[in-house]
Each structure stands twice: as structure tokens, then as C-alpha cells.
Amino acid sequence: MPVFAYKALSSTGSVQTGQIDAGDRGEALRLLDRRGLQPVSLKQATGVVSAKREKTEGKPAAKPGLRSPAKPAKPTEKSGDDLAEGGQMKLKRAEVVLFTEELADMLGAGLQLEPALKAMEGRQELGSLKNVAQGIRNHVRDGMNFSLALRKVSPSFGPLYCSLAAAGEASGALDTILKRQAHYLNTLSELQSRLILAMIYPAFLVFAGLGVTVVFVTILIPQLTQLIESAPGGKLPGPIQLLVSASDHLGAYWYVYVILLIAGGLFFKAWKDNEANRPTWDRIKLTLPLAGPVISSRFYVQFLETMANLVGNGLTLLRALELSRDATQNLSLRSSLNEVIDQVGDGRALSKAMVRTGNFPPLLIDMVSVGEQTGKIDLSLRRAAERYDKELNKDLNRIMALIMPTILIVMALLIGTMAYLMINAIFQTISNLNGR
């Protein structure tokens, strides 16, 4: 086993030197960390034999046939060392938000990244996040970028999260970026909670309406049909005949429609998940009636906030655009940013490049142009982000407000139409009987 010579600082601040047996440099660093030592230098020693190896060589060989029974290994939770060596731990969204908020607060308080992660390891209330923090810290201490360490430790830190973390590292504003990301995740969770709460009553109405429809089609309309046909000269009205025929057809071939519906859903999912079709699907999402404006507004807010943080922390405009593009998941919007990057790289102003692409709203372009003229483009970008954040909230509230009346109108039309057809059929039958 290799031997490493180290020079490290203890928790009291004193300098300690010595040697340590480890399989590689990463393991040696972890062993020193467990002893409470902060390494200053660590080099592999040459011409030194491991003490463990000396003891092994000095012991007589074990007699053949005499083996101690092996104890079965107990399944244990993944530790930070396991995560650092390639294992991954899935996190809930609430845990990702908690990790982001805690780390952002510590970085904002002045701690460096590695000490902040180490401090999170000692927080008992963080639970399994302590192992995640340890795994990330081990990677960072070995020289890996924070954004890459996030990808290695947990798949719950998605591409957007890791891209924004890389932008924060490049600009020196990691704490600000993480706070923005925590705000975004909290907003997303709040939106989902609001959507679930808002859909409880409409879902109840939908199920109640479907139940009433089933009762109409399976019980009331067949009884009414028998009553009308049994009457002298009774004849079913056209709409009732159409409804009965549709009911009989669905009753006989319902399984065919279920199979077609499932097959269509699987085909659409396969088409959507195909990498070759992703640009088309991302472009279609931007044109959807209600979801399209929300996706576009969310992109403008994220793009403007990221650009404001990067430019405000000293990055060049071109590098800030590249990092903002990497943090954009929609391929259609990313292609627009590629056009902007190409034109800015050729020396054109950012506002002019946005105009030439034709994919940015005039208000956003005007605010960017004002920032270019005043020399305070980061402030203009931040004001534009705040404005579009308000617009995004308005769009979401508008959608939430439209859900309830839309469902009520649909259910009222459905049940009202059936009731009208039944009452009309009854009155027509009565009129025929009176006419005789």
C-alpha cells in the first residue's frame, strides 16, 4: 500500500507532519480529515514500506483449512465516502431546497465552500443531507468543481441546477445564485401545492359529472327509450337515437378505445423523449395556449437574473451569455441564445443582437438598451427580471382563476344537454299521444 507524507494543521492550529498509509491520494485526504487535520501538503513517499505491510510480512502464513467464518455484511446507508466514490443518493425536492438554503446562508455569511460543507456535516437536523455534503466536500477537496461534484453525488441536482452552480462559480457569486435557485425551487413547490389545492374541487366536480353521465346513459336513457318505444306511435327523437347508438357502440368496443389511448400515449412519450425530436417539442411547448406564455416568462426571469448576477460580478458579457445558455433547458430558446452569442461575439450590441433574432419581447430589449446607454446593464437586467417575475405571477394567477369556471361551464353544458334531450323526448312523446 502506498505511503503518503503529509503536513497538516490540527484543530488547535498547530502544524503536524507524518506519514499515512492509503490506497490513493483521495483516500489519504479522507483519512486526514477524519483525524481532524487540514492538509497543507501531501506527497507520496518513495522508498518507504507500509507499516501494515511489515506486520503482514512478519506474521506466519495462515494454516490451510483454518478459516474464520465470514460475517454477513449488513446493508448500511450510503456514507459520504461511498458517494464520493461514485454512489449516488436521490433527494426529495424539499431536501434539495433545504440543502440549497443552508449552503447559500453559510456562503453569504463569509464561509468558503469547503468549510461550509464541513459545517453542514455536523448539523444533526439535516439527516441524510450530511452524507451528501460530505460526498460533495470530498470531491471538491480533491480538486473537482462544485457543479461537477453535484452531478456525481446526486441525480436530484438536475442539469439546470448544476449549470447555474457553474455560473455562480465562474462569477464568484455562488451564494447569490444558490439563493435565487432556492427561491425558484420554493416557487415551484408553492405552485404545485396551489395547483393541487385548486384542482381538488374541480376534480370532485368532474367525477360527479362523470357519475351523473354514466347514470343518464346506462339507466335513465334506456328506461326512457323503452317507455317511448312501448307507447303507441312512439318514436325516439334524433338526438336520443344518436346518444343511444353512441352508448351501445362504446359499451361494445370500449376496450379498443382504451388500447388506442394507451398506445397513443406511449407513442407520444417515445417521440417526445427522442433526442432528434426535442427541438420540435420544445418549440411546440412555447406555442401552447396557457403553458407557452408561462414557459417564456420563466425563461426571461431566469435569463435576466443569471445575466445580472454574472455581469454584476465582473464576467464579460460574452461569457455571461454562454453560461446563461448552458443553464437553459429549452432547445428552441437555447438556439436563440446561440444566435445572440454569435452576434455579440462579432461586436454587435446585446440589444441589437436580440432584435435580429426576433425572439425577445420589445420591452425586454428596450430595458437592455437603456442599460447599455447608461453603462449599468446589470441593474437594467435585474429590473427587467423583477418586472417579468411579476408578469409570471400574474400569468399563473390568471391560469388558476380560469380552471374553476372552465370546468363548471363544461360540466354544466354536458349535464344540461342530456337533461334537455330527456325532457324534450318526454314532451314529444306526450304530444304524440295527445295527437292520437
Automatic annotation (TrEMBL):
- Write out the transmembrane intervals: 195-221, 252-271, 399-423
Q: What is its main location?
A: membrane
Q: Where is this region: Disordered?
A: 42-86
- Topologically, how does it sit relative to the membrane? Multi-pass membrane protein
Q: What residue stretches are annotated with the Type II secretion system protein GspF domain?
A: 99-222, 303-423
Q: Where in the cell is it found?
A: Cell inner membrane
Q: Does the keyword Protein biosynthesis apply?
A: no
Q: Where is the composition biased (Basic and acidic residues)?
A: 51-60
UniProt cross-references to Gene3D superfamilies, sorted A to Z:
Type II secretion system (T2SS), domain F
Q: Mind listing the UniProt keywords for this protein, alphabetically?
A: Cell inner membrane, Cell membrane, Membrane, Transmembrane, Transmembrane helix
Q: What is the name of this protein?
A: Type II secretion system F family protein
Tell me which species this is from.
Haloferula chungangensis
- Taxonomy of the source species: Bacteria, Pseudomonadati, Verrucomicrobiota, Verrucomicrobiia, Verrucomicrobiales
